[in-house]
Amino acid sequence: SVPLSFFGGIGCASKNGVLVKGSNYLEAVSKAETMVFDKTGTLTKGTFRVTKLAPVEGSSESSLLLNTATAEQYSSHPIALSVLSEWKEKNGKELAKVEDAQEIAGKGLKVTAGGHVIHAGNQSLMAELGLTVPTPEEAATVVYTAVDGVYSGYLLISDEVKEDAKEAISRLHHVGVKKTVMLTGDRKAIGEYTAKLLDLDEVHTDLLPADKVSYVNDYCNKKTKGRMVCFVGDGINDAPVLARADVGIAMGGLGSDAAVEAADIVIMEDQPSKLADVIQIGRRTVQICN
Ligand code: ADP
Ligand code: MG
User: Fold this and answer.
1) Ligand 1 pocket, 107 CB below 6 A?
2) pTM of the predicted model as reported, rounded to 2 decimal places
3) Ligand 1 binding pocket mutation candidate from 184, 204, 251 (most atoms within 8 A of CB)
């Protein structure tokens, strides 16, 4: 039978804006050894803004934006939303109807619209088309665009870390989490910049959703007996990782249903610093029970 005080713990968590789906997860999170994070939307706000349009020579900023927005109208990724809001701000004309679309998780997308095939995404998506593209030095996410297989330029998109992200990491170390890790599909320059800013112990970049699962799997295999590996995500592309970790934790702030579904614990407000609170609530609950 489940000790009564476990329900007390779940209630206490819930008063703090944290939904715990079972008493076993509250106990497990209190033993967190490794805390693995997704980047976009989890440690960063995921509210991107377009900061630069860099069309190839002979092309224009407005046609680059038009083509990219035409592709991104199909996606609900935070990157896509920023491209579309830039499009609305600058122009607002109607975009060509999407005839066919395919989202390539962790890379970008391929869309057929107005009789053209548009690819928008990262360097590895461009490499699949046999295109070599420049690597900007700025610490920003890059979206490359190709129309009918021809490279047409890139957009720089900047995100910000959440206000309490740095505090969240330092509090986790303080309550005894041994290792904090960030896994991201974003490129090396931006991943390393963010990890340094937040004092994370490890960062792995240029990952596909499946790579994130295998990293979490490795951490689970290497953990100290009796301790736990937690993964914290926002649910966009990372439901399988949430499921693989000992404890899957979703940041519910962006309201992704997939994340709420796949997670064991949901932080209702978009505050990573609540993680240390949950660990402490879990510990107090276990102490009362024993
Ligand atoms: P993260 O791991 O940081 O949460 P994702 O796995 O969601 O990021 O995406 C990884 C990378 O794939 C992004 O940094 C971007 O380069 C590319 N990407 C994903 N979706 C899109 C999109 N809709 N448009 C352009 N690029 C995208
Ligand atoms: Mg993400």
Assistant:
1) yes
2) 0.83
3) 184
Dist. CA 251–CA 43, nearest whole Å: 10
Distance 143 CA to ligand 1 centre (A): 9
pLDDT tens for each residue of 81-122: 999 999 999 976 789 999 999 999 889 999 999 999 999 999
Q: Whose Cα sits closest to atom 20 in ligand 1?
A: 108
Residue 109: CB within 6 Å of ligand 1? Answer: yes
Which tokens go with 25?
Answer: 């997860």
Ligand 1 contact, 277 CB (< 6 A): no
77 DSSP assignment: S
Q: How far apart are CA 263 and CA 229, in angstroms?
A: 14
Domain boundaries, the chain: 4-45+162-289, 49-158
Residue 229 in tokens: 């590996």
Q: What is the pLDDT of residues 198-249, one digit of tens each?
A: 999 999 999 999 999 999 999 999 999 999 999 999 877 788 999 999 999 9
CA distance 290 to 287: 5
Which one of the ligands is nearest to 72 CA? 1
| Residues that are catalytic | 38
Q: Which fold has domain 49-158?
A: Calcium-transporting ATPase, cytoplasmic domain N (3.40.1110)
Query: What would the CATH number be for the domain defined by 4-45+162-289?
Result: 3.40.50.1000
